[in-house]
Structure formats: C-alpha cells, structure tokens
Amino acid sequence: MDSKHDIKEQFLNTPTTVNSHSVEDLNVDFKEHLYVDRLNYLREEISKLNIKELEITQDDLIDKFCDPENPVPIKFNDISAAAYRIKGGVEVTPCTRSHMSALTGMEIFFKKDFLQYTGSFKERGARYALLSLSKEQKVNGVIAASAGNHAQALCYHGKLLKIPVVVVMPKIAPIMKVSNCRSYGAIVVIEGTNISEAKTYALKLSKMLNLMYINGYDHPDILAGQGTMALEIIEQVPNVDAIVVPTGGAGLLAGITVAAKYMNPDIMIISAESERCASFYNSMINGKPTFTKPESTLADGLAVPLVGVNSYASAHKLVDKCVRVKEEFIAIAILRLLELEKAVVEGAGACGFAAIVQGLLPELKGKRVVIPLCGGNIDTSILGRVLERALVADGRLIKIWVTILDRPGGLTEFCKLISSNGASIKDIAHERAWLKDDIFSVQVQGVLEVENSEKARELEMKLRSKYENVVMAPYGGF
Ligand SMILES: Cc1ncc(COP(=O)(O)O)c(C=O)c1O
What cofactor requirement does the entry state (predicted)? Predict the structure, then answer.
C-alpha cells in the first residue's frame, strides 16, 4: 500500500465524533495533506479532459438525491437540525425596518443576507450540505453546477472545512463570481452556455471522479439550510404577515415556506421571479415542474429553467401567490435599495422588492412584510449599466430631440429653458445635414437629468409649447 493510500485508510478508520464541524477532529496537518493532495489530483485529471467531447449517457444524468419519480419534501425538523449545525459558521444577518415603509405603504423589513461573507444566503445550504457528508465524501470532495452564488458558497465553506470543491460554471456566469470561486482555492470549470448544460457536465464529472454532486436548489440538505433564514426572520420580526421570496430553482422558497408555515400557517408566502424565466410560476400552472426557456435577465441567479423536484414538492401546496417581475422594475429596485437603503443588491436578490415596486402586491398594504435581500454579487460594470437603465425607467434620465433656431442665441435660449426647469444637461449633440426643416434650424439631441418623472413631464410640456419638433424617448416608472 502506498503512503497516500495508507493515510487515507487511517483517516477513514478514525472514529467520527458527534457534532464535530469539519473533517472531524483530525490532526490539522493530516487533514490539510489529504485536502491538498486530492485537489491536486482532481486538477490534474480535469486538465487532461476535453469536457465538451465527453460521452454522456442517461445514467450519467441521474442525481439520486433529486429523483423526479420520487421527490422528497423537506420537513421542519430538517430545517431545525440545519440551524443547529450551521450555527457559528454562517452569519445571523440583520432584519431591519426599511426607510421604504412610508413610500410603499407597507411595513417593510429587509433580511440582509447579502451581508454573508460570500455575499449571499447560499452559504446556509452549502455549509449544511458539506457538514452532512460522510467522512469518505468529505475526503473525495463535491461538485456543483452554478452560475455563481451556490458555487461561491460551496467553494468558501469547502476551503474552511477542507473539503475539495469543483464547480462547473456556465459561460454566462458573472466575472466577479468566477474569480471569487478561484480565490477560495476551488477548481473552476467554465463550460456550457447555460446552467442546464453546466449541470450536465458536472454530473458527468461527478461520476468519473467520485465527487458528490450537490444541487444548489434541490438537494434536501440545501433546502433545509436555506430554511434557516425563516427561523431567523420569525425571531427577528414579531407578527410577520408576509414574506416575499426571490425564486430561481425554488430551494430558498421551499426552505422558507416549510419553516414559516410550520411556525405560523397564517404567514403569506409569495414567490417572486423574473418574467424572463418564470419557471416556478409555470410549474404551478401545470401542476408539476415544467421546463421554461430562460431569457437573459438582470436576475441571473434566478435563471433556472426547471425548478427542483424536491423544492417543488416541498413548496407547491403552501405557497400563497406567485408573481412575475419585469426587468425595468428589478433595475429600479436595485436603484432604490442603493439610494435609500445603502444596500448593494444584485438583480436576483432585489426581485422580491421589485415585485412591490411594480405594484404586483397591493394586498400587502398596511401589512408587515419581510423581503430577503438575498444576494449582493453584482459586477461593478453591470451595476453602472443597471443604474443608468433604472434612472431612465424612473423618469430621471431623459433623452430629447428638439429642432431649434440655428442663429446666434438659439442654443442659449434652449439651454435656459432646460435649466429654468431644474434639469441638467449630461450630453448634447447637433444635427444639421439630415434635416428637412428650414436651413436655419438645427436638431439638438440632449441627455438630461431631472428630479423625477413629474419634472420630466413638465419639461416636455414647456418644450412642446416653445418648439414645433420635440421628440422624447419613452421614460417613466414607479
Ligand atoms: C441572490 C439570489 N437570490 C435568490 C436565488 C434563488 O434561489 P433558489 O435557486 O433556491 O430559488 C438565488 C439563486 O441562485 C440567488 O443567487
């Protein structure tokens, strides 16, 4: 027997202590040795593969923990066990009354899970799933497909617990999430154009390399871990009337629903999805998990084409309402959260609040409503673009084309009208050649900043009363 094998055998024969938190109670160097050794081995094996060319059979695609023929709903006990085990390893995040309560006519509380170390609630399930592995699985390691937050959570807690982690991320995964996973020392494979393709490769690799596949929205331990958020909410906010849950694969929804309804069946549970991938909504309509073609959305974390079978089985009878949110309201929600709540929240994490911004939940007026802000991982360049779009949707950034007199004083007059209305010019350009109006006219194209959409309308009216040809790009919103 070679020495590596010897060490591993020795480890596997060491008795496990109850409720220990890592590759249990082993000499630290010994644990580190196994971890590094296995990661190196996996890295080398994966680098030799041409993943796209792997032959994939139906058997490769089986995940025995997520069996469509035999879905397993989680129970409240699973969630309380998860809460006990992850205590101390995952933050208890604040759940505070929002400045936006007056604006929305609801008493809004934000559960700030974007404050977790890796910036999302996914740590809850990831840590619990890792802690629940058998000793042998802890040595062999795990694999997952994820566009970002589940991957980051697994990679980070894998590093802390010395459990090797491989993640397969689709090509659309945000750069920030990919580089974070690498920074946690995990093996990152970029493959597949969407999460479903990434999952196919991950399942194949799990079988080839003896890695346990952990579905980020459907493994029962993941659902139990996510449910711990509801236990905290109920302790932090007395007399909650409703929780509005951003939904992708529905793992968070399942965990929160089972926990909250067990504690108080009167709490209303609302699922909020992007209308560009409303897979839970469609599944509820069809009475079973239903494939929904995802379109590109700001809420990349929610773009899961098929909800989890265990998640659906856990949640579908208990969820009170499902709403589909438009992209522009997700953008406005991100802007509001930044401006009024001082919170940087990604599209998926802002989707619950976006449902309220869009006016999809009028029945919650006057109620105590908790909204998980469940992720904050947004690329800075995307955030910049989102904010500009949100300002347009909000009617605070407007674009106009006005034909004015091309004589001395024509432009001054135009600018005076703009500034007397409290608007400021961000950009201005002139067009002369392509005009059909009289030769002494010029078309001015301007991008203007105004206080709000009402001011934009006022300005539009004033411009129209002075100039004949005024065109405004569509604007408006909440
Ligand atoms: C920030 C954020 N919010 C919500 C969700 C939805 O979670 P689930 O897939 O469990 O429905 C995700 C999923 O990745 C997410 O990243």
Answer: pyridoxal 5'-phosphate
Other beta carbons within 10 angstroms of residue 171's beta carbon come to 13
Give the pLDDT score at 159. 96
Residue having the nearest C-alpha atom to atom 14 of ligand 1? 301
What is the rounded distance in angstroms from the CA atom of residue 156 to the CA atom of residue 185?
8
Residues 6+ apart with CB under 8 A from 102: none
Residue 244 C-alpha to ligand 1 middle, in angstroms?
A: 13
Domain residue ranges in the chain: 3-62+134-213, 76-120+221-391, 395-472
pLDDT score for 5: 61
Please say whether the dihedral angle defined by the alpha carbons of residues 207, 210, 215 and 219, taken in this order, is positive or negative.
positive
Per-residue model confidence as pLDDT tens digits over 196-248: 889 999 999 999 999 999 999 999 999 999 999 999 999 999 999 999 999 99
Predicted TM-score (pTM) of the model is: 0.89
Nearest-atom number in ligand 1 for the CA of 147 is 14
Residues with pLDDT less than 50, the chain: 1, 16-22, 478
Atom number of ligand 1 nearest to Cα 250: 11
Q: Residue 316 corresponds to which tokens in the numbers above?
A: 């579908």
pLDDT score of 32: 87
| Cβ partners under 8 Å of residue 330, min gap 6 | 274, 297, 298, 299, 347, 350, 351, 354
What b/e string do you get for 437-447 counting C-beta neighbours within 10 Å, with b at 16 or more? Answer: eeeebbbbebb
Query: Which atom of ligand 1 lies closest to the CA of 125?
Result: 10
pLDDT of residue 19: 41
What are 124-154's pLDDT values in tens digits? Answer: 999 999 999 999 999 999 999 998 899 999 9
> Looking at residue 232, what is its pLDDT?
98
Can you name the CATH fold of 395-472?
A: Alpha-Beta Plaits (3.30.70)
76-120+221-391 CATH fold: Rossmann fold (3.40.50)
> What is the β-pairing status of strands 441-449 and 397-405?
antiparallel
Pocket of ligand 1 (CB under 6 A): 120, 149-150, 217, 246-253, 301-302, 304, 346, 348-349, 374-375
